[in-house]
Amino acid sequence: MIIDGSESSLKSFLGNLSPVDQVGAEARAAMLATRSIKAASKSWAIDLAISMVDLTTLEGADTPGKVQALCTKAVRPDPTDPSVPSVGAVCVYNDMVKVARSQLDAVGGSHIPVAAVSTAFPSGRASMKVKLQDTQDALDNGAGEIDMVIDRGAFLAGKLGLVFDEIVAIKALCGEKAHLKVIFETGELVTYDNVRKASYLAMLAGADFIKTSTGKVAPAATSPVVLIMLEAVKDYFQMTQKQIGVKPAGGIRNTKDAIKQLVLVKETAGPDWLTPSLFRIGASALLNDLLMQRMKIKNGYYSSPNYVTLD
Question: Could you confirm whether 257 is annotated as catalytic?
Fold first, then answer.
């Protein structure tokens, strides 16, 4: 089927997607959540999860000092243990991109990209001119990844061509300079069928990653939603031979949650997606719990929370 970006071709393609079996998706996600990993593999899983964290601060009270401290932690999550990997990215508001990029470079984190939330985050309600300028500002300030939000109102109103065109335009700005993550805000899409359709729409428009949520709306990264998105990227790869990443964000706060995500990835998309280049976890509190669990394995006991920095 030819997809030319027109409203009619998009509606035809997305309308022919098989509907999601809600009961089946929820049952499989629940079953995979009960899977455990061997104790010998837990250290590996924790380090992998750390390397996949998009360490995030998206608060109105963010200051340059807070962002600088977060960037230092991103490079060396545990200053006492150089074997702890760096995180996957630092995710901040647009106006903090330059601060984050400068700090990362200053503390040996030139390999860590800055992800900027863009296109009128978190609502996505702005003119295209504003969204393009928002994105260009982030790129000019050194963002290596753009986390854009779709216009959920347009999507739910059936204006699929409009959503498609916005993603295409933002991807064109990113070019080869930055990866594009497309945020759906799955809590507002209401149905699993809409999640599947949004996943394909974003991938067809050029997304490098598809992302569940802004972290500002509940429910966010539920297991069934992540499962459906992982199924979509796997099927899309079989169709096109192009691998698209997935980023759950919102509600993943502890090591148990993170390991459940890794199990979902391996059993759904496959082990090739178990890499920071294809799977990220948007989180703020998660990193500290991963560090605490890592210390427990290393030392045989739980250290005081004072051993990790509060973000």
Answer: no
